[in-house]
Amino acid sequence: MTRKIFKYQLSITGTQVVQMPPNAIILTVQMQGEILCLWALVDLPLEPLTKARTILLYGTGHPIEGDPRYLGTFQVAYGELVFHVFEENPT
Question: Residue 47 needs a FRET pair 20 to 30 A away by CA distance; which of 1, 5, 80, 85 works?
């Protein structure tokens, strides 16, 4: 089985949905220059089906509901703003 790492661009917003292959494994979330990106390990060949993955961003000190899976932390505005990224109800 062959695998590749794919990059998905995210918005710096509270909640968003990213379409990925069903078996994609999220590796990390970081800033690449001025763009927030998520990297995931995917199996090749790509499956024609996709799975909706809900990504949540929270600022430091903001309440977090439920039991989302932590993916990473990133900073913007030269470290003045710090956000924490989670995946909602990962399966």
Answer: 85
Query: Helix, strand, or coil here: 52?
Result: strand
At position 71, the amino acid (one-letter code) is L
Q: Which of 54, 51, 50 is nearest to 89 (CA)?
A: 54
This prediction has a pTM of 0.90
Its sign, for the CA torsion 62, 76, 11, 85, is: negative
Q: Per residue of the chain (91 residues), what is the pLDDT tens digit?
A: 799 999 999 999 999 999 999 899 999 999 999 999 999 999 988 878 899 999 999 999 999 999 999 999 999 988 899 999 999 986 6
- Selection from 25, 28, 88, 18 nearest residue 57 by Cα: 88
